[in-house]
Amino acid sequence: MATHASAVKRHRQSLRRRARNRAVKSTVKTAVKGLLTKVADKDAAGINASLRNATAVIAKAASKGVLHKKTAARKISRLAKKAHAAGAAQA
């Protein structure tokens, strides 16, 4: 355990940040899973709503620094590609 006051404070900060980052990552995973479920079910209306939601959640995580900007862009791109393929397959 840290003994210097500054090290103790840094540890407290890291624990708070870890909890916040884990919560944001969990939200991202839930949104992505929701979209992939809609894609598997071929629910056209649900796909559009879920894609919009997942994109917003991922972009917000990137803006907070939880995800790297390019990682977020890659995830959004791959999800959009899957959603559009599923939508095109149904049309």
Estimate the global geometry from the Cα principal axes. Answer: elongated
| Poorly predicted residue ranges | none
The number of strands is 0
CATH topology: Methane Monooxygenase Hydroxylase, Chain G, domain 1
CATH architecture: Up-down Bundle
In this structure, how is the largest beta sheet organized? none
Report the helical percentage.
Answer: over 70%
The domain count comes to: 1
Q: Evaluate the radius of gyration.
A: 18 Å
Structure characterization notes:
By secondary structure, the protein is an all-alpha fold. Helices cover 88% and strands 0% of the residues. It has one domain: Methane Monooxygenase Hydroxylase, Chain G, domain 1. The protein is built from three helices and no strands. The radius of gyration is 18 Å and the shape is elongated.
Could you provide a short overview of the structure?
The protein has helices at 5-41, 44-64, 69-90.
Keywords:
about 90% helix; mainly alpha; Methane Monooxygenase Hydroxylase, Chain G, domain 1
Task: Give the SSE map.
Layout: H1 5-41, H2 44-64, H3 69-90
